[in-house]
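Q: Predict the bound structure with 2-phosphoglycolic acid.
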Amino acid sequence: MNIHIFKNEEDFIQTAASQVTSLLNANPYAKLGLATGSTPVGLYKRLIEMHRQGLVSFAQATTYNLDEYVGLPENHAESYRTFMNEKLFNHIDINIDHTHIPNGNAADPEEECRAYDKMLEENGPVDLQLLGIGHNGHIAFNEPGDSLTSGTHITTLQAKTREANARFFPSIDDVPTHAITMGVGSIMKARQIMLLIRGEDKAEIAKRALTGPISTDCPASLLQCHPNVIVLLDQGAGRLFK
Ligand code: PGA
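A: Predicted complex:
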C-alpha cells in the first residue's frame, strides 16, 4: 500500500483530485468508482472547480457508486443518488445516464444486486475506486463480521453505522436499516483503489486497517491484499503512524 499523510488539507484534497483528473486526462473513457459520506465532499468540490477551470472533462466517463440505502425514495434528501447529484454530477459535464448507483427501491432487490454485478462484470473493471472507511472498519456498507460477501448484496446496517449516519437525519429512527452495497470482491476488482481517511476519530481504525491483521472483523484490512492501493490520510487520521 502506498500511504501518504498530509499536514494540510489543501494538499490532501489536491492530491486526491489529481489522481482523478490525471486518469481522466489520460483516458477520457475512464470508469470511476465513487463513494458517498463526508470524506469525499472536499474532493468533489475540487473536481467541480477543476472542471470549471477547463482542467478536466467527465463527458465520456462512466461512474459506479458503491451503495445506496434500501427504501429511501430516490429523490429523498439523504439518498445517495441525491448526494451524488448535488455534490458532483449536477455541476460537471457527465452524462447522467452514465452514472450508476444501486437502486434501493427495486421491486426485486436480489435481482437488482445480480444486475449491478452483471453490469460491473460486463463494463468493468473500474479504473479507480474511491473509498472511505467507517469507524468500524467497513468499506462501502460491508460491515465487520464472521464473513464477508463478495458480490453486491443487501446488508443490515450495524448500530454503529446507523448512529454515525444519524447526523444527516431528523433522528436515528429515520436512518434506514438496510442498504444495497457492492461486495468486497467487487470492490477489489478495481485496477486501482484510493482510500481517503480524515479526522482524529478515524486514527485508530486507520492504523488497524492498514497495519493490523487482515480480518473480516475489519473489512478495510482486506485492502492490504490489493496490488494497487493509494491511501491518503490527513494529519488527524494519520496521528498513530510514525
Ligand atoms: P464518512 O463515512 O466519510 O461520512 O466518515 C465513511 C464511511 O462510513 O465509509
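A: The chain has seven helices and ten strands.
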